[in-house]
Each structure stands twice: as structure tokens, then as C-alpha cells.
Specification:
- It is found in: Secreted.
- The chain is an alpha/beta fold and 246 residues long.
- It has a single domain, classed as Glycoside hydrolase/deacetylase (TIM Barrel).
- It contains 8 helices and 12 strands.
- Strands 2, 5, 6, 7, 8 and 12 form a 6-stranded parallel β-sheet that branches. Strands 1-11 form a two-stranded antiparallel ribbon.
- Helix 4 links the parallel strand 6 and strand 7.
- Helix 6 packs parallel to helix 7.
- The protein is globular and about 45 Å long.
- It starts with a helix and ends with a helix.
- Bound molecules: zinc ion.
- The site of zinc ion has 5 residues, from loops.
């Protein structure tokens, strides 16, 4: 009872639509973008056009979507915080430099939250984010989380290699942001039981895979689905992916 009153009061104070108390059916789209470029290679599915990206974000903004921090997303799935109107998690993988030059200004324009999953061995190398850029975006509301040290398929590595791929990346992110990452995106979306056990042992709350479905409160937290937004997707496809996952 106390919990309900507190939630109602919080909703009132924050003017959040009180969908939270009815959040029996939590469904949240988690979008996954890679490179966002002014001149994408038409044959590369993972290079998305900046013009299309701007249209996508304008659509989410105009249609009342609430972009989430990754902790908010996790807490919504666990039903420990109220669910805002049309929640959505935006994620970006591989820490390519376009995140800073192309994506981040658009996110700032709409005051949107997002998560960047970084490959730590690539930080401060050509075509990738620098440590300083990561610090800047992190200090402005972008979550920085783990995409391993080198982006090898975790299922092809032995236990010690898997452990280092995750643990060394944890340390590097911690050194840059001063915050310990607790969410991991599996390279290529692939993982196995040993990967999950390593994540749990290191205090990770969740792991993200790739799938064409919305995430729900009943999903396995170490196999959360993300929806890839791909080069060649029409605007209708984008809207459909946001609303039903494919
Ligand atoms: Zn990746």
C-alpha cells in the first residue's frame, strides 16, 4: 500500500502518466544502430544514413517517446520504477567516431538519452571515439557500457579469454568514466552459459543480444533482444520496428 501511494505521489509530482501501476505487460523497444554516416556504403547494412537517423529521432520526439537511461530501462523491466509514456532505449555499438560527430548532436538537440557500447581496444584508434570524447558524452547523459575488449565472438573463446574480454573492458571503461559498467552487449549477439556466468560473477546486471522483438519483463536478463536498424530500412520499416520489433 505504502509503495502504491509513493508511486502515485511520484507520478503526480513528476507529471508522469501513471502507466506504471498497470505495468503488467512491459514491452520496450531497444534499438541498435552502428555507424551513422553522411555517406554510407550502400552495400554495408551497418552504415546508416545520417539524414534517415535525423528523421527517426524527429519521429520519436514528435510522437511522445521517452528515451531511457540504461538503468531506467532495467528498472522498468523489473517494475521498480514507474513506466514513462512510450519508453524506448537507444543503443549504439562499436564506438565509431561518427557517434560523436553525427549522432551526439542530434541526441543533444532533442535532449535524448542513449547508451554507447564500446570496444575498449578500439578507443583512441583511427575512426573511433577518443577517451576524451567518451568522457564528454558520458558527462552529458550518455551511458558507456561494455562491448568487450576486441569484439571477438565470445562463443569461440575459452573461459579465460572470455573472462579477459569482459573484465579488461570493464577496467578500461571504469578508468575513463569512473563508473563501473554493469551491462554488456555481446559481439554479434552471440553468447553461451560460461559468458553469462562470468557476467554474473563480475556483477553485471544484464547482457544484450540481437533479435527482432520488443524486450519484455519476462525476458532472460542475460539475453535481452535489441532490434537492428539497418541501411536500407524504409521509414515505414523503422516505425514498424519501433512499434512491434520488426
Ligand atoms: Zn559490435
Amino acid at each position: 500500500m505504502k509503495k502504491f501511494l509513493l508511486m502515485a505521489l511520484t507520478c503526480l509530482l513528476l507529471s508522469i502518466p501513471c502507466a506504471a501501476k498497470a505495468a503488467t505487460n512491459v514491452k520496450v523497444p531497444v534499438l541498435l544502430y552502428h555507424v551513422v554516416s553522411t555517406n554510407p556504403d550502400p552495400s554495408n547494412l551497418y552504415q546508416y544514413n545520417l539524414t534517415e537517423f535525423k528523421k527517426d529521432m524527429a519521429y520519436l520526439n514528435a510522437n511522445g517517446y521517452t528515451t531511457l537511461s540504461i538503468d531506467q530501462y532495467y528498472n522498468i523491466l523489473n517494475k521498480t520504477i514507474p513506466m514513462p509514456n512510450k519508453p524506448i532505449l537507444l543503443t549504439f555499438d562499436d564506438c565509431t567516431e561518427d557517434f560523436y560527430t553525427n549522432v551526439y548532436p542530434v541526441l543533444r538537440q532533442y535532449n535524448m538519452k542513449a547508451t554507447e557500447f564500446v570496444i575498449t581496444d578500439f578507443i583512441d584508434t583511427s575512426w573511433h571515439l577518443t577517451s576524451n570524447e567518451i568522457k564528454t558524452v558520458f558527462n552529458n547523459g550518455i551511458d558507456i557500457e561494455n562491448h568487450t575488449t576486441h569484439h571477438l565472438d565470445l562463443t569461440t573463446l575459452n573461459y579465460n579469454q572470455k573472462f579477459s574480454a569482459i573484465n579488461d573492458a570493464t577496467a578500461k571503461i571504469q578508468a575513463i568514466t569512473k563508473k563501473t559498467p554493469v551491462y554488456c552487449a555481446y559481439p554479434y549477439g552471440t553468447y553461451d552459459a560460461a559468458t553469462v556466468s562470468i557476467l554474473k560473477n563480475l556483477g553485471y546486471k544484464a547482457g544484450f543480444s540481437v533479435s527482432n522483438t520488443l524486450s519484455t519483463d519476462s525476458d532472460n536478463k542475460y539475453g535481452l533482444p535489441r532490434i537492428c536498424i539497418l541501411n536500407g530500412d524504409s521509414f515505414d520499416t523503422f516505425k514498424s520496428k519501433v512499434s512491434i520489433g520488426h
